[in-house]
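PROTEIN DESIGN WORKSHEET
SECTION A - STRUCTURE
LENGTH: 349
TOKENS:
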């Protein structure tokens, strides 16, 4: 099997590439990534020499390139992760999200449709999506695969549009698609614009910890390697045309999560208890900030036997330790473009 993984140099993509390269030496894994600010080949140092792994730098907005790659490698499957992924950036520049998340996805669908024409048997186009397409929950209930779409940020609107296109290609052309919608991931290699690594980095540096609004927005956190495991199950055993929700059954209000992070970080850094909590600063809320996400993951558990593997406190401890042990990685990614983004974004708050 030859698999195209898009966005494999990003946070989740790098864990997916690692899992497939290491677990399936008989497969060929082609990682296509444009290396935007969020893509980083240092995320893949431990697999870059593997004989079954190839990296191609390229952009999913480039339809001609996709055509050439499908011709050259004759992919059996696509796992599509490449995307603009940060909600705050989508508020500043929605068009970049339309270009990559919508047009880029349609380019990939077109390439698969053309090159797999009449030979869909055994092939899979696996689209990775998010729980944010379902909108915002009140204090009760869960997102199921039947929850109507209600995206509320430019990011989630672009992901919803891409999901609709993937399903449309299934119904219209019979393309053998499968989709999953996952909750918030955490773990090593996450870019520090996202809540958990941003807080860890700021705790390290003794900088303010910017909590949006009242800090009571709720997210459902999942260990990133559990997401990669779910991808393995869905690619191999998911039913064509189906959607699987993936979540950690692990809801945290942001402020409670930040308290836990502070306490674990103080312990791991050998600082007096309570040191990091003093850095917490409530700042202006994110516009259109979704209040609560929570996933009902019973379908994937029932059909594919998948479930989260580790407890949150253990995963968070491992995550903090990883960032503290990998300051070189952190220094590299927080330099340059990120510094300018950070100053501009948090100045407005
Ligand atoms: P990320 O921002 O860390 O990585 C995105 C990767 O895509 C980067 O390597 C980047 O270089 C690449 N990329 C961006 N634009 C590209 C383009 N035009 N052509 C080729 N490559 C391009 O994102 P992530 O957090 O790893 O998310 C990966 C996927 O998973 C996204 O589709 C996202 O919507 C989805 N998702 C993320 C989460 C989460 O919690 N992070 C949860 C559910 C779903
Ligand atoms: O739910 C899945 C989604 O999770 C993915 O589709 C997205 O790609 C991913 O970025 C993530 O979106 P969120 O907006 O939930 O993640 P983020 O880390 O940006 O924020 C998590 C929560 O923390 C959210 O309620 C906003 C809040 N927050 C975030 C930042 C960056 C803060 O309070 N302060 C901050 O500085």
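SECTION B - SEQUENCE
RESIDUE ASSIGNMENT:
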């Amino acid at each position: 099997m030859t698999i195209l993984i898009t966005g494999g140099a990003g946070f989740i993509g790098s864990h997916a590439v690692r899992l497939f390269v290491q677990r399936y030496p008989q497969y060929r894994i082609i990682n296509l990534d444009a290396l935007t600010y969020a893509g980083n080949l240092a995320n893949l140092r431990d697999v870059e020499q593997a004989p079954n792994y190839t990296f191609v730098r390229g952009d999913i907005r480039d339809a001609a390139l996709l055509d050439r790659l499908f011709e050259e490698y004759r992919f059996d499957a696509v796992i599509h992760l490449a995307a603009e992924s940060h909600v705050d950036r989508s508020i500043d520049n929605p068009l970049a999200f339309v270009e990559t998340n919508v047009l880029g996805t349609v380019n990939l669908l077109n390439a698969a449709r053309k090159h797999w024409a009449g030979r869909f048997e055994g092939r899979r186009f696996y689209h990775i999506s998010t729980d944010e397409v379902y909108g915002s929950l009140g204090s009760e209930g869960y997102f199921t695969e039947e929850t109507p779409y209600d995206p509320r940020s430019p990011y989630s609107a672009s992901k919803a549009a891409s999901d609709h296109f993937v399903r449309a290609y299934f119904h219209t052309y019979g393309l053998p698609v499968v989709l999953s919608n996952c909750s918030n991931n955490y773990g090593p290699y996450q870019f520090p614009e996202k809540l958990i690594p941003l807080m860890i980095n700021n705790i390290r540096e003794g900088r303010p910890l910017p909590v949006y609004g009242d800090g009571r927005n709720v997210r459902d956190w999942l260990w990133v390697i559990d997401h990669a495991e779910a991808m393995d199950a869905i690619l191999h055993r998911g039913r064509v045309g189906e959607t699987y929700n993936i979540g950690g059954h692990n809801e945290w209000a942001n402020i409670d999560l930040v308290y836990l992070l502070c306490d674990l970080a103080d312990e791991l850094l050998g600082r007096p208890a309570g040191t990091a909590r003093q850095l917490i600063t409530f700042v202006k809320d994110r516009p259109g900030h979704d209040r609560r996400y929570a996933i009902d993951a019973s379908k994937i558990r029932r059909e594919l036997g998948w479930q989260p593997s580790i407890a949150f406190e253990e995963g968070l401890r491992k995550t903090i330790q990883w960032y503290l042990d990998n300051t070189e990685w952190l220094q590299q990614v927080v330099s340059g473009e990120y510094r300018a983004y950070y100053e501009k974004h948090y100045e407005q708050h």
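SECTION C - NOTES
Residues 94-115 form the longest helix (22 residues).
The chain has a mean pLDDT of 97.
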